[in-house]
Design goal:
There is one protein chain. A hairpin with a 5-residue loop joins strand 1 and strand 2. It is built from 9 helices and 8 strands. By secondary structure, it is of the alpha/beta class. Strands 1-2-4-3-5-6-7-8 form an 8-stranded mixed β-sheet, sandwiched between helices. The chain is 35% helix and 17% strand. Helix 2 packs across helix 3 and helix 4 packs across helix 6. It is globular.
């Protein structure tokens, strides 16, 4: 496996960090990865390794405001800011990862907020996609959000977008203490309180994206833990029922928390993803 890093300039002059993993032999397709809120693409090295072993190239970006990319930390004014960057990255990948007369088929893989980025990308005009895998898609908050907060969040997001609100509980990420400890110690992970504007964006994702979900027609696999305390598994079920895809598979894993690729059962989840992709690509 060959690993490399790069960067590109996105809207507003923001520098976006990227990295690529390539197999020794010519890949059958390229998986383009979209990470979740507060984290970064470097946490997916083991996912990339499993996909490379299966014959895929893997390319990932750090979303603006995250990891080694530029922009205000963890600030997501609009999900379209991230999906526009993602669309630019897809074009770059098509031109740079094993370019030729016939570009590699592209598979999109997202986790949590990164899944919402992909959904937002797919409900608009986009280049062909061979298959889509979404892990713990964040469309509906797992904890009940009080009605007054739902009303106030967009207002606060507009008038004081960068005001710190509340922090995530790292214990909700995984049941594996080693994963949680690494998450807490990772300097590239955002450990502060979520900006008000980001919170408003995240809480508004279901209303913004679900009415358009029928526009998604690509083969879709959703993997989700039943004990996810951040992204509601019911949101994943609703998405699976709303898309216009002819091939839709929802795999739920009993007892798993939010990051199914970082749970003790991660090998089973990754094997399921690789097997499903083999049927589609």
């Amino acid at each position: 496996m060959t690993h490399s890093t790069d960067q590109f300039l996105a809207a507003g002059g923001v520098t976006i960090f990227t990295q690529t993993w390539l197999p020794a032999e010519d890949p059958s397709a390229v998986v383009i990865l979209s990470h979740g809120f507060g984290e970064h693409s470097g946490r997916y090295g083991h996912v990339a390794a499993a996909l490379v072993e299966a014959g895929y190239a893997v390319a990932a970006l750090d979303h603006r405001g995250h990891g080694r990319s530029g922009g205000p930390r963890a600030y997501v004014k609009s999900i379209s800011d991230l999906s526009n960057d993602f669309a630019m990255f897809r074009d770059i990948v098509a031109q740079t990862v094993k370019p030729g007369e016939d570009p590699l088929p592209q598979i999109l893989l997202g986790h949590s907020m990164g899944s919402a980025v992909i959904v937002d990308h797919l409900v608009g005009p986009h280049d062909p996609v061979a298959a889509v895998v979404l892990s713990g898609p964040y469309l509906r908050n797992a904890a009940e959000v009080a009605a007054p907060l739902k009303v106030l969040a967009p207002i606060l997001g507009r008038v004081a977008g960068k005001l710190p609100t509340q922090a995530l509980d790292s214990g909700d990420v995984s049941r594996d203490p080693a994963v949680v400890a690494a998450y807490d110690a990772d300097p590239l992970v955002f450990h502060g309180k979520i900006p008000a504007g980001t919170g408003a964006t995240l809480l508004g994702l279901e209303d913004a994206l679900m009415p358009k979900a029928s526009r998604i027609t690509e083969p879709l696999l959703i993997v989700h833990g039943t004990e996810d305390r951040l992204a509601a598994v019911d949101g994943a079920r609703a998405l699976a029922g709303a898309v216009g895809s002819q091939i839709v598979d929802l795999k739920t894993y009993d007892g798993l928390h939010h990051e199914v690729f970082n749970e003790p059962e991660q090998d089973t989840v990754l094997a399921d993803v690789v097997a499903w992709l083999a049927e589609q690509v």
